[in-house]
Fold:
Amino acid sequence: MAEPLKVALIGCGFYAQNHLNAWRDLAPEGVILSAVCDLDAAKAAAAGQQFGVPHFTDANTMLDAITPGLVDITTQMASHRSLCALMAERRVPAVVQKPLAPNWDDCVAIADTAHRHGVFLAVHENFRFQTPLRHVEDLLQRGEIGQPSWARLSFRTGFDVYKTQPYFLTEERLCILDVGIHILDLARVYLGEVIRVSCETQRRNPRVRAEDTATIMMKHEGGAVSLVECTYGSRKLPDPFPETLLEIEGEFGALAVREGEQLHLTVNGARSERWIGSELLSWTSRPWHVSQESVLHTNRHMADAVRAGRPAATSIADNMKTFALVEAAYEAAATHRAVQPKVWTPVP
Structure:
């Protein structure tokens, strides 16, 4: 077995519990959760006690104490720039929760710093690692429906996200940056890079400061067109939360992922249907399991990449391409025109 990889986690809030459970599940694979850290001493202590590891309230102190091989940053995005800079300066590989930062300039600063120091940095873009969506990627890579030419990817829910994350109510950017970024990333994975973005946003909930709904259309380099839909204001029942639903059409077939993790596949006129979900883990529960389980897959991927000395699939360079679509969507909505995504060029 490979030498154990010591992991430390910074940020012991709501969603971080999934990260903590996932790291614990990877112990048989030699990935050892070794410390937790949070500015809130009570949260740090509670996580440390629950998972049987030392807890800290200062990241520098933690790094001095345990010398981790990978740090998992699960804090809110306002702290990402300073924490990523700290990891880069100390040459500590890190994975950071999405979104990488509130805006393009901060993302560029984070990416440039990591590049300058030559340190591993990846974004915890876990939608790619959801079991149903991994099935979709595999089908497309095998050419089951031929070259994709059109797709609709949708995350539409009325689930009360403000109850567990009340700060969403006052964010200047909301739906596109919080969940749309996941769906935009999937569109890149399935259909290729994007050359043009159009977008319309809506604020359907009067309690919310920013957009809670977005409808985005993109033209991809290979000629395909995709529609990306995201909203926290859906009234549809049953509510598919937190599933991503989609349909993709190709040269000689089509596929769709519908409620209940159901795959509908048509190839040369022959239709089939099957379940592409997964069984519950000891710490997952429906309907959250779709998201929860993806954390385990993402964490395993990050650990494997660090050990192999290779970039993660969702490396900082890759995620900058996804964040460029977020920026383009906001600009397109504001200017009422199609926008070409920005390109990050590493500073020598």
User: Anything to note?
Assistant: The radius of gyration is 20 Å. Residues 289-308 form the longest helix (20 residues). The mean pLDDT is 97. The longest strand covers residues 194-202.
